[in-house]
C-alpha cells in the first residue's frame, strides 16, 4: 500500500475523447473513475461526501467490466483478511475474549462487511481483589508459620490497648466519684477539739486512740438470748450501762445498745476489734444519742419522734440521692433522707440493717438495732479497728468528711478516758 491506495493491476488510462461508435459527446459528463479503498475511513463513508459522483449513461466495455470486478474482488478479499487478522475467532455467544479491545462489524453500501477496532476505556487500570478474595488470602496467610506467629501478637496488642484505654477512662472517673457513705455528710456536729488528723499509718499518742473496753461485766447474755429484765439480750448490761453512762454522760439505754453491739461483734467478728467508744462517738455526732430534733429514747430504745434528716437534694453541700425506698423509711418519695439515731441512708440500711432487740423487726429508729448495724458496717471488708489506718478508713467510709472523722475521734477519746476513771 502506498499513500493509502491498495495495490491493483495497472491498466491504461481512458482516452480523453469518446471511443469511436460511442454516443457520448464532448458536452456530456465523463464517467466517474473508481477511487482507491481507504480502510481507516468509516464503513460506508465515501471519500468525498460533499461531491457525490454524478450518474453516467456511458456504456462500459467488457474489458472494463472485468477489471472492475477483479478490483472489487481484491478489495473484498483484503478486507476479509484484515478482519480475520484483527478480530480473531469469536465464540458462539458472540462475545470477545480479549479484555482490552472490541471489534465492530458493519456492512458498506456495496454489501461488503468491514471491521473497525475500538479500544476499551480503562483497560490498563489495575483490578483490585474483592472482599472474598481478600478474606481467602488472609485465611491462607494465617495458616502459614508467619501468620501463626503474627496473629496472636496482634490480638494481644489489641487487648492490651483496649485495657489501657478502658483504664484511662474508668480509673479517673472512679477516683473523682464521691465515696459511698452510710450517713448524711451534712449532719450537724458539736464543736470539736482543735487538732489535725494524725497520719493513718502512725500509732496514735497514748490515751488518744479509743482503748479496748475492759469494763463489760462477765457473764452477759450471748447474742440471740433473752435478758432477764425486758426480754432483750442487752438488758443483761443494764447495771454496767447505768454505772458507765453516769461517768461519760450517756443515757443508760444508749449505753446498753453500744455495749451490746461490741459484745456481738466480738463473738461474730473477733478480728474487727470494735470498741463501744467508737459507736458512742458516732451516736453523739449524728444525733446526740437519739435526742436530735427534740427526740427522746423510749424504754424500748426507739427515738420519738423519729429523727429524719434534711432531703439529700444536692443543696447546701448535701449529696443528691433520689428516692430509693418509696418513702417507707424516710417519709419522702422524692429524695432520700438520713434516718434514725445513727442517721443511716435508706439504701445502706436495706443492706446492713440488723435486729438487736429480737423483736423480729429491723428498725432504723431503734437505737439497739441502729448501733449493731453501725458496728457491722464499720467492720466490713475485714477491717481491724485496733489499727489506726483501718480505724480512720472505717470512719470515713461511714461519712466521708475529715471534720466529721476528727470529731468522732475526739469524742471516742474522751469517752475512753472518762470510762477509766
From TrEMBL:
The keyword Transit peptide does not apply. The chain crosses the membrane at residues 149-171. Keywords: Membrane, Transmembrane, Transmembrane helix. CDD domains: Slt35-like. The keyword Zinc does not apply. Residues 100-111 have a biased composition (Polar residues). Pfam families: SLT_2. It comes from the Bacteria. Residues 201-221 have a biased composition (Pro residues). Residues 115-124 have a biased composition (Basic residues). Residues 334-381 form the Transglycosylase SLT domain. Residues 61-99, 189-200 have a biased composition (Low complexity). Residues 1-147, 189-238 are annotated as: Disordered. InterPro entries: Lysozyme-like_dom_sf, MltB-like, SLT_2. Gene3D superfamilies: 1.10.530.10. This is Transglycosylase SLT domain-containing protein. It comes from Micromonospora andamanensis.
